[in-house]
Amino acid sequence: MLRSCTAGLRSLWALRGGREGVPRPSTDLQPAPRLFSAEKVIHTDCALPNPSWSKDLKLLFDQFMKKCEDGSWERLPSYRHRCAQISEDFKNYFLEQKPVKEGRLSQVRLFTRGFEDGLGFEYVIFKNNDEKRTVCLFQGGPYLQGVPGFVHGGAIAAIIDTALALCAAVPGKAIMTANLNINFKRPVPLCSVVVINSQLDKLEGRKLFVSCNVQSVDEKTVYSEATGLFIKLDPEKKSF
Ligand SMILES: CCCCC/C=C\C/C=C\CCCCCCCC(=O)SCCNC(=O)CCNC(=O)[C@H](O)C(C)(C)COP(=O)(O)OP(=O)(O)OC[C@H]1O[C@@H](n2cnc3c(N)ncnc32)[C@H](O)[C@@H]1OP(=O)(O)O
């Protein structure tokens, strides 16, 4: 399975010219890339199928897109580079936030979107606002290997953190992970597809308590279980 995955990815890499910044092939769902002249950054929604997606991932994606039709679920777009609104939300909380030199701004990438198609994190998150839960469909590519043949625990933690953050996210508010607890129960095979079901368990002042499980597509295997605590940042504390 791993061999076919890497062979497919090699031809994909060649197809894409094997270089950074090449936009994904367009699909009906994909918005036209926007080019910001100041930073020359292409904003492409990465939470859409690309040729590296396995049959399982595409099938599940289609099933969830159907659930979106009545408005109960929504697909959350995801961008490799800076998202203006999120930057705006966080800007209010950080004093003189210039951790990255102006010239390197175009290199900044969301960690989980920092790999070429199919090599790292391929995922899409769907949210049900009424039920306060999200479902993340995740395929961990060959660059995420830890123990041979399996996804690195740090990569699993990163995708869990992302899934939980988006479950806890409050529009227009900045939140950060304060605590993340993971029980790794079974190793996740590289290039397989797993489903991360997250839910908001409790809201207590600025604290958002969330939890999730990571399951196989057939729901027979529970790979991990996790809980997270996210804190809404306090504008009064503006001290970072
Ligand atoms: C997260 C982004 C979501 C945005 C989504 C929108 C669009 C999508 C775009 C991209 C998706 C990206 C998703 C990526 C997610 C990645 C998230 C991260 O990894 S964040 C990075 C890791 N986290 C940090 O670096 C945080 C470091 N810590 C802090 O900065 C601070 O500690 C704090 C968490 C900000 C809290 O500090 P603050 O001063 O504001 O709070 P208090 O200390 O006063 O605490 C308030 C309250 O909470 C309790 N608390 C705090 N920490 C803990 C803890 N670790 N365990 C338990 N309880 C804790 C504290 O006791 C207080 O409780 P009470 O009020 O009852 O006294």
From TrEMBL:
Predominant location: membrane
UniProt topology in membrane: Peripheral membrane protein
Domain of life, source organism: Eukaryota
Annotated ranges, domain Thioesterase: 149-221
Subcellular location(s) per record: Cell projection, Ruffle membrane; Cytoplasm; Mitochondrion inner membrane; Mitochondrion intermembrane space
Keywords: Apoptosis, Cell membrane, Cell projection, Cytoplasm, Fatty acid metabolism, Hydrolase, Lipid metabolism, Membrane, Mitochondrion, Mitochondrion inner membrane, Transit peptide
CDD domains, sorted: PaaI_thioesterase (cd03443)
Coiled-coil ranges per UniProt: none
InterPro entries noted in UniProt: HotDog_dom_sf, THEM4/THEM5_acyl-CoA_thioest, Thioestr_dom
Top enzyme category: hydrolase
Pfam families, sorted: 4HBT
EC number from the UniProt entry: 3.1.2.2
Catalytic activity: (9Z)-octadecenoyl-CoA + H2O = (9Z)-octadecenoate + CoA + H(+); decanoyl-CoA + H2O = decanoate + CoA + H(+); octanoyl-CoA + H2O = octanoate + CoA + H(+); hexadecanoyl-CoA + H2O = hexadecanoate + CoA + H(+)
Family the entry assigns: Belongs to the THEM4/THEM5 thioesterase family.
Name this polypeptide is given: Acyl-coenzyme A thioesterase THEM4
Species this chain originates from: Rangifer tarandus platyrhynchus (Svalbard reindeer)
Organism taxonomic ancestry: Eukaryota, Metazoa, Chordata, Craniata, Vertebrata
